[in-house]
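Figure S7 source data.
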Amino acid sequence: MLSRRVDHFVESVIRDMTRLSLKHGAINLAQGFPDFPAPEELKRAAASAILEDYNQYSITWGAKDLREEISRKAREYNHIEADPETEITVTCGSTEAMMASMLALINEGDDVVVFEPFYENYGPDSAVSGAVPRFVPLNDDNSIDEEALVSAFNKNTRALILNTPNNPCGKVFTANELKLITELCVDYDVIAVTDEIYEYILYDNKKHISIGSLDGMKDRTITISGFSKTYSVTGWRIGYALAGKNLTSAIRKVHDFLTVGAPAPLQHACVTAMGFPDSYYKELARMYDGKRKLLYKALIKAGFKCRMPEGAYYILADIPEGTGMDDMAFARYMVSKVGVAAVPGSSFYKSEAGRHKLRFTFSKKDETLMEAARRLEKLEI
Ligand code: PLP
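Tokens for the predicted pyridoxal-5'-phosphate complex:
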């Protein structure tokens, strides 16, 4: 007998596509991890940390020097004051930060507002924590449908999940949109849980705004981020949650009994990461901008319809008309016959809207993207 909880979700389709991609020798544009090396300095820092014997449990809520660096970064970049002693929890990736936050916040049956399209994990996060997700579809141009957002809030609403820059559609929420969300959170006494893992990957002079920095939000926001995407170390599993003292103490309790703590030597190496100069972050965004343009051009040429993302490293594309296939069938056809793996759109939608979309990542070497472009040219519809 299994728990009812696990009946409410399936295994990750994204990671499933990675397995299929390996099987067919396809180019994996499904899962969002770099196929290029992590920064040399970080690899050396991690190796030294092990040799210097940072090999035992660190403090459960994170090594002190890392929390201090995160606090400095939160002040300077996010404009959020977070006391490293009481308001920061280092977790096993932002994935754990999100799950621990939901478990700390939600009672069975509480409503949680989620924009659609959404990152795949928020479905299982809701199912495991007992939340009832209320999906609010974004407009076709990715703007917020104000009426739909307002009507999703009610007295049973406990939290809103935000993800900016957004995976899968690349939306960067604007100051006005965040103001509207803030007003609703204040009016309905709702906590914003914001996943900002792509906070440094922005294009066309877009600016990242953390909702936790807005007036009235400090004590009703859990700000989640991590090292996976900014430093190209998705396998290290280091992330964190910033929240007021009460919320943090609840998150820390869940975190302690889920994982005890994040990998100690890698936490130590993350202190080195946080010392990188501004030029590192500029170069990261510049590098991804080139990859974004490369993939966009290839998809348009192959007959997909898509928008240029404003941030993050994905393109959500409409399947060319006339294939007669839905997203699942087309993703399978792509991986086995064209040799390019992508994620079926329905992984990011509750509604039917995802049925004619695929998500591609461009977090890959230029040569990988160019080979994908060559293969996409062979797409016959
Ligand atoms: N949040 C979003 C929106 C993501 O796209 C991803 C990874 O693809 C994650 C979280 C996972 O982050 P982490 O590696 O820190 O667990």
